[in-house]
Amino acid sequence: MTKIDDTNTRILRALSQDGRISNLDLAERVGLSPSACLRRVQELERSGVIKGYRAVIDLAKTGIGFVAYVTVGLNSHTKAAQEAFEKAISRAAEVRECHNVTGTVEYLLRVETRDLSHYKHWHTEILGTLPQVQAITTFVVMDSPKDERA
Which domains does the chain have, with CATH numbers? Predict the structure, then answer.
């Protein structure tokens, strides 16, 4: 297992802010030689600490104008019900994140659609028709003053 020391923490923080930073600039930023920095990054990748690199996308420029977080309560708390729900959700392109959570509901979803009317269709015709679903609550994102997801 890779040790996450202060240097690796600085590397991870810098890469999460700019995954395309050059090794030379990264090394300078974290105070290492370029070769030592590259070895550390490669070890973080090899060990799975760094799972991949992503582009940060301007959703509005791709036609996404509606984002919501949706809580979903199931009508049955069995493993089979959870697996069936997760399988159905994995096929829904509108669902960008699905988290199994603790509390009064089982799932928290991040849903992205073109607009409210498309969300309503997805909510009614897809999510609302799943036999495992008992309760749905939608939280519409009005603004995101801080969003560090890559």
Answer: 6-46 (1.10.10.10), 59-140 (3.30.70.920)
8 Å CB contact between 7 and 40: yes
pLDDT per position as a tens digit, 10-34: 999 999 999 999 999 999 999 999 9
Positions of E strands within the chain? 66-74, 95-100, 107-113, 133-140
Tokens of 18: 């700019």
29 burial (CB, 10 Å; 0-12 / 13-18 / 19+) is: middle
Q: Give the integer Cα–Cα distance in Å for 56 and 47.
A: 24
At how many degrees (to 10) do helices 6-17 and 34-46 cross?
Answer: 80
Provide φ and ψ at 117, rounded to 5°. -65, -35
Where residue 60 falls (left for φ over 0; alpha for ψ -120 to 50; beta otherwise) is alpha
> Can you give the pLDDT at residue 150?
62
Amino acid 1: pLDDT: 76
DSSP state of 122: I
